[in-house]
User: Fold these one by one.
Assistant:
Number 1:
Amino acid sequence: MIDIGLSKMALIGAVALIVIGPEKLPRVARTVGTLLGKAQRYVADVKAEVNRSMELDELKKMKESVEGAARDVEQTIHTSASDFEKDWNSSLGDASDTASGSYTPSYEDLGRSVVPAYTHPRKNWRVKRAAVPQWYKARAGVRSKAQSGAARVARFRPQKFR
């Protein structure tokens, strides 16, 4: 970059004072300052955009490598599962020669019959308790049982009007 020291700045200021004049110099200095500020902001924005694009490229490369590793793992799992199923069917085939049954279940059929299906616990919403303690609700006057407007009026109506 340009090496500008204090002596060079004083020389530039003296030349500007002679060329521009003392009346217009403050306005020109303000304009130059705002233009330099805009230029610095522009350069900073360009640097930030370049850094973002570089990080995006790195993330894309990382994503591709992770997807490749996942595909490799999936492929090895499928091959080992198929090998296990072949071994299982061959061992069942040896056992079925002695038995009279002609049906040999596959690995998927055995998995479905052994493992029960998932069921949601289905919590009872009536049993669920609120976070606010009951003693606080009673003291604060929070209604715990809902009543219609007419039932509330009848409940709190004075005795002589009943």
Note: The chain has a mean pLDDT of 80.
Number 2:
Amino acid sequence: MDVDENGLYRYNYFDQYWTENERFPFLIKVNEKYGGFAFVRKLKHETGSSYYSMAEFFILKKYRKIGVGKQSAFQLFNFFPGEWEISEVEENIPSQWFWRRIISEYTNGRYIETEKKNGRGPVQRFYSMEDTM
């Protein structure tokens, strides 16, 4: 996506994260400075059961590779116990590597990976906390 005429990147669902009950925005702080953000959604399967989705997850480059992303992801998984689904864009290989490593460590390798319905990238599914697949 392109930036707008003011040089800003417009996220289509940004406002809804502060107004809708099933969307949860988080700012990630590192030593009292903002180091990233995460947007979590609660969605429903066709069967009616609920699951959580990591809609957006971003850590500033200066805070990467020191455990901030891992710690933040683990805290979010624990905060929202239950079924999770995380998907990545096919072209974003670093994101795929990150999520596979983080989810595998969090679940002790107990997760399922499939392709998105449109075939454009992987999806990891797992349960957080004491839930098991």
Note: The chain has a mean pLDDT of 92.
Number 3:
Amino acid sequence: MEFIKTDIEGVFIIENKIFKDERGQFIKTFNSEIFKNNGIDISFLESYYSISNKDVIRGMHFQLPPEDHSKLVYVIKGSVLDVVLDLRRNSKTFGKSIFVNLSEENKRSLYIPKGLAHGFKSLEDNTVMVYNVSTGYDNKSDYGILWNSFGFDWKIENPILSKRDKEFETFNEFFKKEIF
């Protein structure tokens, strides 16, 4: 595994170890020791996946403290434009967003620490995204930022969104509160 720093502190693109032989492929997506050696001491409490059609946007999601969590995400089928937004007021990159292409082709993972919002646009039908999170789901802490309110160009006219994702507060409305 190779950890590649991004423009947002604590967010890493991970080039996963791929083993190939006549049977196919085996991909290692997590190793506690390797993560610790890269400054990330984490255990995951939940793992789940989503299946999305082309032009679906899911996001921008996070959990509020004290139930906030770090995530390790990757795609096992299809491809996504994965987006991370820094919500940490004391961060040098507060309000900055980055994107990473994750796909079954490149087999990359993305590590996202606490205090960041996460979302993605599915680039293909039946894209499968896996999420590993460091805290359990908490309905009272589950939150989000409106997908098109923080200056990121998703390069899409008519995305497919859930009712919930359409009704999130804008980035500016959210930060009138003293949360992070």
Note: The CA atoms of residues 88 and 115 lie 5 Å apart.
